[in-house]
Every structure is written in C-alpha cells, then in structure tokens.
Amino acid sequence: MIELKSSFHAKLSASSSLRWVNCPGSVREAAKYPNVTQFEAAEGIFAHYVGAQCMGRIAFAPVSNWFGAQALVDDHVITCDQEMVDGVQEYLDDIGVDLQPGDEHFVEVSLHEALRKLDPDFGGSADYIRWRPSTRHLRVQDLKYGAGVTVEPEDNKQLKVYALGALLQTGLPAEDVEVRITQPRIPHAHGTSRSWTFKGIELVAFARELQAAAAKTRDPNAPLVPGPWCRKTFCPAVAHCPAVNTQALALVNGDDFAIDRPYSKDALLKGLSMITQLKAKIKALEELAYHEATAGRLTAEDGWKLCEKRKTRKWNDEAAVSEWAKDNNIDPYIRELRSPAQMEKLAKDAKVSAPVRNELGEYITAESSGTVLVPVTDERPEFKRLTSNDFA
Asked: Could you give the dihedral angle defined by the CA atoms of residues 176, 126, 106 and 195, in that order, rounded to the nearest 10 degrees?
C-alpha cells in the first residue's frame, strides 16, 4: 500500500487565496485550529498522485492500470475505484488532446520558492503547466476531484497565483495565459473541463493586488468577512469563526419566516446573505463531531451515539437469484437505454470517431429539473419568468 501525506500548505497558499484576499482575518483564525485532512481531501490527494504517475513526457500510461490500488493518506485508506479511474483518465485525455509538437509540459510543480520572491508567506504547487513557445501560450491546469463545490476558471485566484508563480520561476515570455479546470465528478453545462484566457501582462497588476492583500492579513485586527469563500476554500475556522457566529445568532434571533405570514424584505435579504456561511459552519461542525465520535471521544454519555444507516436490501448471490427467476418464469432483468453521458463515454472507449460521436447530439435534449435561488454572483444565467408583457 502506498503511503501519502497531504502537501505542505504555505500560510498564504494559492489554494486558499480566494479566502485570505477577501477575509484577511481568516488567516489569524485558521491558525488556531488544526487543518484535519477529510476523507474527500484524501481522495483528491490520491487522484492527483495517480494522474502524475501516469503522465509521461511523450505518452501517457492508462489510468486503468491503477484500478484497485490503495493508498494510506493521513490515516484514510483510499482505493482507486472505477470512478477515480474514469475521472483521472478524463483529466489526462483533456491534457493529451491539447499537446502539440514542440510543447513543454511540467507535472506537480512546486512554486513555493518563486512565489516567496513576492511575499515570504506565499506558496503553492501547480498540478500541470504547459508552455507553447510557438505562440507564447501558457496553460495552467488544475484537477478538481471533489464532488461538492463547483469551481469556475474565470478570474480564479488560485490558478492565477499558479500562473504567476510559473512565470516567476521560469521567466517564460507568455503573451496569453490560459487557466483550465477539470472537474470530472460534477456535471456542468460547459463540460467538465473549462478554460479562461487573459493576457500575461495582467499578472503584473495581480501580483501587486496579492502583495497588498497579504499585508492586510498581518494586521492583528484584520477584519473577518464571511462570504462564499468560507465554503469554497473549506476554511478550518468556519465552525468557530466569531463573525459567522454573530451571523448565526442574528439569523436565529431574527424574524421567523413563513410563506403565509408578513415579512420584512430587508430581513429576508439579510438572512439569505448568511445562508452560505452558516451551511459551511454546520457542515464543519457535523464533520468534526462525526470524526470525534468514530475516534471514541464523543459517546452516548455526551448525548450522541453512532448508529448504522438505514439498511438496504440486496442480493447476496445474483446468479442463484437469476436461476430461481427463470425456474419460475420471471424475467429478472430490466433493460433501459443508457444515459447520454454513459453512451458518449462508451463511444469514446470504443474509438468511435469524433464526427460519428457528434451525431448523438441530434438525439439529446437538455432539460432542467426546475429552478434554484442563488446569489447574482453565480455564473449561471438568470431564469426568464414569463409575464403578461411576453404576450403583448
């Protein structure tokens, strides 16, 4: 079994840059609590390791060679199952399609030394960097194996820090910089791999912004500013954050909302603005409590206990059941058409040409299951409600 450890995180790491740029006081608060590696993070560490091991200079090894392999990651035993094989393979395929003769590429690049030229607390490691000398095009690509939080490439601070570090470390004269995300476990209207491109010169101003934000984090009275970055960057202090606690008390002690009673719109909007941070706080609290219960430090004497989840019935001998069904003139199988995603994957695995695979698009209709209320900062377009004006 392979033994892996979570990578070193600088005080002002690239992965948490969205948080400390917007909430400078979070650095002070986060330092008070150990950053325990959760199971999901351990999965990501192993997925990145598998991807790096499969990436060669010329040809990439198939990820299927790793099926069934196990790793011990910070006390978590992680197995490379079919979902991990498929996810990492999708990441490698996306990289492989992009590569051209003359390209240079680098895997799992430590940028700590380069970034510390800007600030001693900076640091980060890029999953993948590709440099194309012929067009002076730099691509920084990140594998997001998590299935909980959708990540977008547009103005993504983490990837911009990686791009900045790459330029500082190599001195590459990049004219265009592309930051790309592959998130294979979360369906997205624009695909699981998405890019955003900008001019390399823009990183000069970005570097100054980072330095100014870093200086604010060292202020003993740096403010705490709760926001979506609490959840997106998995802030270790969110369960104890004084600012989030203040919001929680304000929400609990505020108006009681119900569809059939009058309400204050200002109070409703204020409550909505707190939900994301409070959900992150609740999730962190539940994860900590479960971790302590499984370790035996939270017991029934404290008023809480571990119980088995609801049991689901399943066959323990499918072949025998199949024979029993046939003996009793029962068809034991249900046949249904595969989903568009499954069909596309099978066609790709079967080496069906791209033009022929594209024919499937004629038979696919994308339908939403409904609407969801989100902040206006969400990247999805606003749903257009029909009104009487539409029929004028």
From this structure: -40
Q: What is the pLDDT of residue 311?
A: 85
Please write the tens of the pLDDT for every residue from 326-357: 999 999 988 888 888 788 888 888 888 878 88
Instruction: Tell me how far apart the alpha carbons of residues 70 and 81 are, in angstroms, rounded to a whole number.
Output: 9
Return all residues near 280 (Cβ < 8 A) that are at least 6 apart.
Answer: 230, 231, 235, 238, 244
Could you give the C-alpha distances from 77 to 34, 35, 236, 344, in angstroms and in order?
20, 18, 22, 32
Torsion of CA 117, 122, 125, 131, to 10 degrees: -40
The yes-or-no verdict on residue 163 having pLDDT over 70 is: yes
Tell how strand 122-123 and strand 125-132 pair up: unpaired
Q: Is the pTM for the entire model greater than 0.85?
A: no
Q: Above 90 in pLDDT, residue 219?
A: yes
- CA 164 from chain centre, in angstroms, equals 21
Predicted local distance difference test score (pLDDT) of residue 205: 95
Contacts of 161 (CB under 8 A, 6+ apart): 14, 17, 111, 115, 122, 124, 210
Q: How far apart are CA 194 and CA 178, in angstroms?
A: 10
The answer to whether 66 and 80 are in contact (CB under 8 A) is: yes
- Flag whether pLDDT at 114 surpasses 70: yes
- By DSSP bridging, strand 104-110 and strand 125-132 are antiparallel
Task: Place 150 in a pLDDT band, splitting at 50, 70 and 90.
Answer: confident
CA distances from 145 to 47, 151, 186, 264, 323 (A): 7, 11, 9, 41, 41
Neighbours of 270 (CB within 10 A): 15
Residue 162 in tokens: 């990686």
